[in-house]
Amino acid sequence: MIANLEFENFTAFEKLDLSLSPRLNVIIGSNGTGKTLLLKAIYGLGLLAGGRFPDRSDEGFAASASGKFLSIFSSEDEKVGTLSSKGAQAQTRLRLVNSDGSAVEVTFGARSQYLDFASDTVKPNAADTPVYIPTKEVLSLVRGIRHPKHDRATVEMIFDDGYVNLAELLVQPGFDEKSDLLEDPRLSNVIRDLVTLVGGRYRAKIDGGFDFQPGRYEEKAKSTTDGGEGRSNAQIAKAYQDSTQTRFVSSGVQAFPTGMTAEGYRKIGVLHRLLCNGSISPGKTGALLWDEPESNLNPKLMKKLVQVLLELSRNGQQIILATHDYVLLKWLDLLTDEGKEDHIRFHAIYQDPNTQKMSVESADSYALISKTAISDTFAELFDEDMARALGASST
Q1: Is the dihedral of CA 374, 379, 382, 387 positive or negative?
Q2: Cα pseudo-dihedral 190, 192, 196, 199, rounded to 10
Q3: Strand runs labelled E in 155-221
Q4: pLDDT at 395
Q5: Which among 3, 40, 56, 182 would be 20 to 30 A from 16, CA to CA?
Q6: Other CB atoms within 10 Å distance of the CB of residue 253
Q7: Which segments constitute the Rad50/SbcC-type AAA domain (predicted)?
Q8: Is 336 exposed, middle or buried (0-12, 13-18, 19+ CB in 10 A)?
Q9: Rounded Cα gap, residues 52 and 132, in angstroms
Q10: Is 275 exposed, middle or buried (0-12, 13-18, 19+ CB in 10 A)?
Q11: What is the distance between the alpha carbons of residues 275 and 133, in angstroms, rounded to a whole number?
Q12: What is the Cα–Cα distance from 296 to 266, expressed in whole angstroms?
């Protein structure tokens, strides 16, 4: 679990010291303030600490790790120095500290080709590996990204590693492809809610793509005459399944291509797939990084999505979101339950008018939102709407 971030001379960030909540973190700011860059830097450092590059003694390690780190940022330059702040005299330093005190730290200069690793950089730990969900949906892109006849160099020029890595996670088989039963009571409600939200589930196809199967999960009393057929062997589920079973029930409508479903639904489908195949497992896997989860999502679905995210955080999943959507922020404020030990830390990025560098202000209160352009814009809209209504009523 990530506890702290320290950046110096990284892109538009001259200095950043960020303390993260072990539960839910929300990064807010206007377009161009660096929200996505911040998420990608966390992701890149997390991969370095999470076992993606295990053999640090290999002579090619620095080149390999640096190349993969750079590819996360869609940079056409082959030198990591391109990520340094323009005009910076000192080196760029990025440090990620985990809650157990272990850390990964890299430095590089404006002309550096490769990352330099600090001596106390952590040994790889697969449990620290984060999952990054980019702004655009990925389910409909998986087949194209992974197709064996497509030139890999061309694919990697079109899609940064955030998309490529996520595509690999999405094709991992999940319990829903082995059985229609939900096995883990912790995630039963979450997975059921996600399926209900979009009216079905996305399944992997033999050709490397996905289709959408309409249906829902239903909880039924366990039959005493079935001899235990279909019961999960998972220890965590046995007591629960003594009396109930939660099974996917098809609506009877034939499955259809992913591209025929709404893009917002596909984003929900990504989260569902990652939970079903264990790529996201609260308390066992690294942080979930999600860039603008509200993108292409109907505002009516926002409340349920926020409830799902809060439930995951309550089960031990660290979440870091980047957003500039007022509806998402307000639902986070309204649905936070202190009785369930919910904790949300807001991180507002703003530009210093004198230096043009980005700074971050953090607070454990939604009141921080009142200082951002997001609330100002919606307040302006409300005022304009009221002014028009009052003007119309007075004539």
Answers
A1: negative
A2: 120
A3: 200-204, 210-221
A4: 43
A5: 56
A6: 12
A7: 5-102
A8: middle
A9: 14
A10: buried
A11: 13
A12: 10
Closest C-alpha among 345, 374, 376 to residue 362: 345
Give ∠ CA 321-325-331 in degrees, rounded to 5: 80
pTM of the model: 0.87
Query: If 0-12 CB within 10 Å is exposed, 13-18 middle and 19+ buried, where does residue 292 land?
Result: buried
> Would you state the pLDDT for residue 378?
58
The pairing of beta strand 210-221 with beta strand 244-250 = antiparallel
End-to-end alpha carbon distance in the chain: 60
Distance from C-alpha of 74 to C-alpha of 161, rounded to nearest angstrom:
8
- Dihedral over Cα of 203, 205, 208, 209: its sign: negative
Residues 6+ apart with CB under 8 A from 89: none
Averaged over successive runs of 10 residues, the pLDDT of the chain (395 residues) comes to 95 93 93 90 88 59 88 85 90 93 92 87 71 94 92 88 95 81 79 93 92 90 55 49 74 91 94 93 93 89 94 96 89 92 92 82 77 60 67 54
Q: How many residues does the chain have?
A: 395
CB 247 within 8 A of CB 217: yes
Compute how many other C-beta atoms are within 10 angstroms of the C-beta atom of residue 249: 11
Q: Which residue spans within the chain are E strands per DSSP?
A: 2-10, 13-19, 24-28, 92-98, 103-108, 116-117, 131-133, 200-204, 210-221, 244-250, 256-257, 288-291, 319-323, 344-351, 358-363
Cα separation of 209 and 141, whole Å? 8
Distance of CA 123 to the CA centre of its chain: 24
- Phi, psi angles (nearest 5°) of residue 293: -60, -20
Please report the domains of the chain, with CATH numbers, ordered by start residue.
2-130+286-380 (3.40.50.300)
If one counts every other C-beta atom within 10 angstroms of the C-beta of residue 393, the result is 7
Residue 24 to residue 43: CA distance in whole angstroms? 16
- Contact criterion met (CB below 8 Å) for 46 and 96: yes
